[in-house]
Amino acid sequence: MVALFAVAIIGVMSTRAMQNLQTMEQREREDDLLFVGQAYLRAIAQYHDQSPGTVKRYPPDLQSLLLDERAVRVRRPLRRLYPDPVGKSNQWGTVEAPDGGVMGVYSLSPQTPVKRTGFPAALEQFEGATSYQDWKFVYIPGVIKEGT
Q: What are phi and psi of 147, to 5 degrees?
């Protein structure tokens, strides 16, 4: 009887440990998503703000962030296209700018985030999100400052 009780306790503890491990891994992927999303946000801001001439343009696609040849000096707003750490794919959802181009990115994962509060001021709109698809990293000139 005691041995059966001990096996049951060990089983419950093992299950709880696995749940904690999965939650910890999800939190790490969320941290990666915040880092990568902000890298895309900064790259989009740089591409937009450093547009030659007076008319500012968003990049036509994410690939354009790798090599910006619009000016005399070549710029590389982003060194590489990062995969989505939560969705575990190379595909990102994109937020289209009103006049064309990409003004933001978001994960395509429908998973529910563990993190609900405590976001930096520039990302406070993520609070209470029901899925990672709600975490949209969007550059709006004058509202979102570069370097967030």
A: 95, 15
List pLDDT tens digits, range 31-82: 999 999 999 999 999 999 999 989 999 999 999 999 998 888 889 999 999 9
Rounded CA-CA distance 86/132 in Å is: 8
**Among positive and negative, which fits the CA dihedral 60, 45, 85, 83?**
positive
The strand pairing partners of 93, in sequence order, are 106
Distance, CA of 124 to CA of 136 (rounded, Å):
11
The residues that bridge with 138 in the sheet, in sequence order, are 104
In whole angstroms, what is the distance from residue 99 CA to residue 78 CA? Answer: 22
- 139, burial (CB in 10 Å: exposed 0-12, middle 13-18, buried 19+): buried
